[in-house]
TrEMBL record:
Organism field: Streptomyces caeni
Keywords assigned: Membrane, Transmembrane, Transmembrane helix
Domain of life, source organism: Bacteria
Keyword Membrane: yes
Protein name: TspO/MBR family protein
Localization terms from the record: Membrane
């Protein structure tokens, strides 16, 4: 599942900044970098720290970041923003799964 999701994020991550202007370009690029960093950090929080609760915090931050990235990208054009929607949806699903694991492992 991650291969097509990362492919769409990569495509949108190239398209949105290319179509954005001035400070908007920087905001999109910064949002993309934050989203990718939070995505990678979840592994450290959940698996490395062996903490489902920390993983929930990480996925919630990723959900917020993904929504903000879509919002920033839509200003540069709806095509790139729409390409990010499956990633955001998958992150929301991952949050629900992570929350379920955290509830079962207090």
């Amino acid at each position: 599942m991650w291969t097509p999701l990362y492919a769409s994020v990569a495509w949108a991550g190239g398209r949105a900044p290319a179509r954005a202007r001035g400070g908007q370009r920087r905001a999109v690029a910064t949002g993309l970098a934050a989203d990718l960093a939070l995505n990678a950090d979840w592994n450290r929080l959940f698996l490395g720290c062996r903490s489902p609760k920390a993983g929930v915090v990480g996925t919630l931050l990723l959900d917020i970041s993904s929504a903000a990235l879509i919002r920033r990208s839509v200003r540069a054009g709806t095509t790139a923003a729409l390409a990010l929607v499956p990633h955001a949806a998958w992150c929301g699903f991952a949050t629900a799964l992570n929350l379920s694991v955290a509830r079962r492992n207090p």
